[in-house]
Amino acid sequence: MGDGEGREKPEEAKKIVHTYPLIRHSDMPEEIKQESMELVVTACEKHSTNNESAAKMIKDEMDKKFGPPFHVVVGEGFGFEISYECHNLLYMFFGGNLAIVIWKC
């Protein structure tokens, strides 16, 4: 018997990459959450190479639609602990590992 006959190669660990918006946590009302999610998708697609520009676009639009002061973080590999106004927090992922946090103080 030769080596490799009847043996299967062990499967490599498969990494799941989500290309759609994935909400991890939100206490926003459903209407505001949907509008915010659409805004995040638009900003992240428009500024796919510049997270700072995407965050600024999201912040400016949120301030116009729902009143200031909103805060936005867009990036990869960060943690956060914040104080926020109730019913004004959205934590989501877009395009796999790009995290977005929106909150109002």
UniProtKB/TrEMBL annotation:
Keywords: Cell projection, Cilium, Cytoplasm, Cytoskeleton, Dynein, Microtubule, Motor protein
Location within or outside the cell: Cytoplasm, Cytoskeleton, Cilium axoneme
A GO cellular component annotation in the UniProt record: axoneme
CDD domains documented for this protein: DLC-like_DNAL4
InterPro entries (UniProt xref): DLC_sf (IPR037177), Dynein_light_chain_typ-1/2 (IPR001372)
Primary localization class, coarse: cytoplasm
SMART domains: Dynein_light
Pfam families: Dynein_light
GO BP terms in the entry: microtubule-based process
Entry-linked Gene3D superfamilies: Protein Inhibitor Of Neuronal Nitric Oxide Synthase (3.30.740.10)
Role: Force generating protein of respiratory cilia. Produces force towards the minus ends of microtubules. Dynein has ATPase activity.
PANTHER family cross-referenced by the UniProt entry: DYNEIN AXONEMAL LIGHT CHAIN 4, DYNEIN LIGHT CHAIN
Subunit structure, interactors included: Consists of at least two heavy chains and a number of intermediate and light chains.
Family per record: Belongs to the dynein light chain family.
Full protein name: Dynein light chain
Organism: Asbolus verrucosus
Taxonomic lineage: Eukaryota, Metazoa, Ecdysozoa, Arthropoda, Hexapoda
